[in-house]
Design a protein that fits this description.
mainly alpha, 6 helices, two-stranded antiparallel sheet
């Protein structure tokens, strides 16, 4: 029978595995590719990688830690959408940012694996969403990974499609 602790270890395991998925999806990308946008309002790969790094540090990792260690303290506001321009993502070096994200993920996994007797039921008060638990943040961290893996795969498909007039319909429906 799975215990709650084993289920959380499984989430941490998948967060760790996703590091390899991100590395393999995002390494060795040309500048033309990582700056391309599927639509003018959509993010390019450089912006996605910058977002992943910031989310690793300032959102999910920080909020899990906050809920576990300081649930009584007010939540520090974040602005992931605003960071794209506010932190000038397009001025960042793609490869350096990717390596920083992967390094931060290694640090996150080491920290999560070192936790002992963490109270995953600890909650903190989100100004709009109400009480949110440390476990909720951990599970959403993994969900966030999956959303961006899906986004990156869609980006790669759209880039391939835009790079030639040859139909991709033989491959199947996207």
């Amino acid at each position: 029978m799975d215990t709650a602790k084993n289920k959380l270890q499984d989430i941490i395991f998948h967060l760790e595995n996703n590091k390899s998925i991100f590395r393999n999806l995002l390494k060795d990308i040309s500048e033309k590719n990582y700056l391309w946008r599927p639509k003018p309002e959509k993010w390019c790969l450089l912006e996605i990688v910058c977002h992943l790094l910031d989310e690793e540090i300032y959102d999910f990792g920080a909020r899990v830690k906050h809920a576990l260690e300081y649930p009584e303290k007010a939540l520090i506001p974040i602005d992931p959408e605003g960071w794209v321009n506010g932190r000038n993502y397009l001025s960042k070096d793609y490869n350096t940012t990717l390596e920083s994200f992967l390094s931060e993920r290694t640090n996150s996994i080491a920290w999560l694996n070192a936790l002992s007797d963490a109270n995953w039921n600890n909650t903190l008060l989100h100004p709009e969403l109400g009480k949110l638990s440390a476990e909720l943040f951990l599970r959403n961290w993994l969900a966030h990974d999956y959303l961006h893996i899906k986004q990156i795969l869609r980006y790669k498909f759209e880039f391939l499609k835009a790079s030639s007039s040859i139909s991709l319909s033989y491959a199947g429906d996207w």
